[in-house]
Amino acid sequence: MDRRTSGSDSIPFFGRDFLESAETFTRIGGGGLGGKAEGLISAQSTLLRIAQDNPFHGVSVGIPRLTVLGTDVFDAFMERNHLFDVAVSDLSDRRIAHAFQQAQLPSEHLGDLRSLIEEVRTPLAVRSSSLLEDALHRPFAGVYETKMIPNHQPDASSRFHRMTEAIKLIYASTFFRGAKAYRQVVGETAESEKMGVILQEIVGERHGDRFYPHLSMVCRSYNYYPTGRARPEQGVVNLALGLGKTIVDGGVCWSYCPAYPKVPPPFGSTRQLLNETQSRFWAVNMGPPPPYDPIAETEYLVEGELADAEYDGTLRHLASTYDAGSDRLVPGVGRDGPRVLDYSPLLTLGDIPLNEMVNTVLVACEEDLGVKVEVELAMTLPAGLEGEVRLGFLQLRPMVAPEEAVDLQPGELERPEVVVATQRAMGNGKLQTIRDVVFTRPDTFEARNTRVIAGQIDKENLSLVREGRPYLLIGFGRWGSSDPWLGIPVTWSQVSGAKAIVEATLPAMNVEPSQGSHFFHNLSSFQVSYFTVRPGWDRGIIDWEWLQSQETVTQTEHLHHVHLAEPLLVRVDGRTGMGVITRSTAGEEVGRAEEKPTEE
Amino acid sequence: MASDNRAFNSFEMAQAQFDRVAELLDLDTGTRELLRDPQREYSFSIPVRMDDGSSKIFRGFRVQHNDARGPSKGGIRFHPLETMDMVRALAMWMTWKTAVLDLPLGGGKGGVVCDPHHLSAREQEQICRGWVRQIARNVGPLQDVPAPDVMTSPQHMLWMLDEYEAIHGKKLPGFITGKPVGMGGSLGRKEATGYGVVITIREALKELDIRPEDTTASVQGFGNVAQFAIEMYERIGGTVTCVSSWDQEDQKSYAFRKVDGIDLKELQGITDRFGGVDKARAREAGYDVLPGEKWIDQDVDILIPAALENEINSDTVQAISPRVKIIAEGANGPTSPEADLVLAERGVFVIPDLLANAGGVTCSYFEQVQSNMNYFWDRDEVLGKLDLKMTSAFMGVSDTARGQKLYMRDAAYLIAVDRVAQAAKDRGWV
């Protein structure tokens, strides 16, 4: 049994008493544990320190109980079932997933898995934790699957089946098309990847047929999208009701700067706020069994509406009520009226010191890791003001913070060679390697076609990645949104070859720019610049005419791919948020910046 | 083998074991009399028309030792030296084995005095069908469920099932276990006994606070049980340095040793269908080829006797290395009572056959359940359940042994006999 890797050596083996054991973090099988698990190992001592200081009365902070299947289990699964040929084939994701479902898990670990499931009857998260994620310090969020299972069937065999199916799905997702393309981008092969699997209790409570936490959070100690007075180094927190999938998928959530918790995101009006805050949430489906589909990540998830959450009694600390008479929001749900998830009871009234907790965790993690960090948290709240608050620590990742300075002057955003310009750019640095541009056609764009566009982008991305050609991607609405009416619902793996991305608006797609999802962590880690462009606002420019006049590679009803004779120059000033993409002109500084990444 | 073997009568030994435990449990006379002897015994003639046109009469047996806890369960042996006493002893041990695993079954055993090596497939089929015709009214899914054993195979089980269903005019796949997969057999059955042996070893190592990666083992036998035990033992991190196997041609056994660890796949590649390893090719592959009995004196941590009865006896027990910490009995009855005394004194952790090789009957029970439902589980489900069942049985025996300061074998018997006695009492039999 291989016992390589650093932190994982200190993790005890699973002892068949998942719920009662003093060990809340165990492992099954040898090998590495993967990036996510390693992140949690490094968070353990930090959390212990926080717990010892005990700054928050009535709040329990900790990593939810978990056990990790080491990568040796994955190796044995692949080898004994002869799955490598299928894995590296060109078969569709469904066919690969199906082949993996037919395979058998290593028999020496079945007893441990069976005993876990015999004991646990509450929902479990089955998460990927890959070795490359750890080795490269790069996020693979959205590349590999995570599956939530309700795990509440009275029959242990049913529960066991659901869990083994979920594990096999995670294994199969190592070889899905998106994952292969992604690895190609980072210069890795299928053989170099190994998958650990985290089996973890889900933080949350059961409300009828739904199980979910009151609050999910992604907190970063560096903000690539600072607004108002907030500075990048003051960080950003994204909040969502229900499971964190809302944030991870780039759905509508609430963002604030921990230095200014009472300052809302920049909505134009109360009515806009009412319309554009989170109105749906994800929960684990504890109701009647859904249609059998073991290879769907969302098989056991259900989407609820605010009215459902109100029925469940989970809005008390999270929502305000819109008062039409005064056109303002009143914190809490004490009166009738439309509810708005603005977290005022927590952030403004201080029902529970949420922001202090978040700050404490962020600062402690940043101190211990010595770099900017991103953490994922989930929280359950008491029904009233008294009672226990549970803060579950789900993930810790180091961030890559920008250091290289690019000094852009406002005048540079208006020069004739500008192709794209904005004062709302994310990232920092220069790049001059892009000769391909893929853009959604402004003349034919309609929100109802975003799913089709996502599929076409996937195709273009795949062929550009295969040929090793970085490209500029331009589209309308929030990139990566799970709601196709808010933007183009791509996953990160579908745009993984883009080195610069433009999020534009049109009258038909005029939404608030996307903020705070794992998508942005991917952007920063892979040094991808991100431009939010509202033509006519914030010096926003896109030279559509020039783009359309370039040599066409492919063109569909919705998408246009052009190839340029000379590379574009991409520059982003991380301190001011100004960004500009210019076409090449003679005499400009070309070449020197060629190898420089946008963010170091 | 064995000066102990001269006057060896299995049934007398089984009764002696029972008497000792009955004493420990202070059982009343009625219970002792009930459990000391089988509840039912059948002995019958099976006439078979041979391939040469002659008729031959074979002697068949079935013994149902006790069914207080559920339908009797036990194999059918084809053996030229089969005796009623042997079948009685084995039936009694089945009662204890199912009880120690806490399976809702009793114990039975059957046999036919014959040597399949000298019988054609058609003749063997006739014996199988004849055996069923004689006993069809007294066996069945809710009465007594046979299974393969010495020199009987899934094919024999299928012939027997076919005859049984023809007699009763309906499909009754739960009548017999050990059927071929796809014909009512269970996935995981062929691995179950060997894997089960190693599950108990794994748990014993945990109790002794030894990492499997730090251990080596020597295995007697290279048949089905041994091969799967080796596979699982290697998977949990252990290293097998020696195996012995029977050479059909030389009519003796040899031990094959590689100090760095044998290569299971390599050895399987040079093994004939009887489990005999090709000596010349083994030498070429770097194995030391030693006399068969050398498996027992290897300097290892674990011994796995997985072939014959009475192999660890008063003569051989002294050859066991002082390094040996665990003996896991993959075979039935590999240790004589005299050898037990020596091992107990030396503090060797013996995992008794009753427990160590119960993976087979446990999986047979799973097959019976699946067959009765006519709904079959996947392999992960079978082996996951097997692991749990074996682990919890091990813990039960080990806790009793520790709590009552008993030798592991005595603890296993104590649990088993107590359970069966209690069931008989609860039914009002005694």
How does this structure look, described?
The complex is a heterodimer of chains A (600) and B (430). By secondary structure, chain A is an alpha+beta fold. Helices cover 26% and strands 26% of the residues of chain A. Chain A contains 16 helices and 28 strands. In chain A, the strands form five sheets. In chain A, strands 19, 20, 21, 22, 23, 24, 25, 26, 27 and 28 form a ten-stranded mixed beta sheet that branches. Chain A has a six-stranded mixed beta sheet with strand order 2-18-17-9-10-11. In chain A, strand 14 (320-323) and strand 15 form a beta hairpin. In chain A, helix 5 crosses helix 7. Chain A is globular and about 70 Å long. In chain A, 55% of the residues are buried. Chain B is 44% helix and 17% strand. The longest helix of chain B is centred in the last third of the chain and has 25 residues, at 379-403. Chain B is globular. In chain B, strands 9-8-7-6-10-11-12 form a seven-stranded mixed beta sheet. Chain B has 430 residues and is of the alpha/beta class. Chain B has helices spanning 10-25, 29-36, 84-100, 121-135, 154-168, 189-208, 224-235, 264-269, 279-284, 337-346, 353-356, 359-373, 379-403, 408-426, and strands at 40-49, 55-66, 72-78, 107-112, 144-148, 216-220, 239-247, 252-257, 288-291, 302-305, 326-328, 349-351. Chain B starts with 9 loop residues before the first helix and ends with a helix. Chain B contains 14 helices and twelve strands. In chain B, helix 3 packs across helix 14 (408-426) and helix 4 (121-135) packs across helix 5. At the A-B interface, helix 5 and helix 7 of A face helix 6 and helix 13 of B.
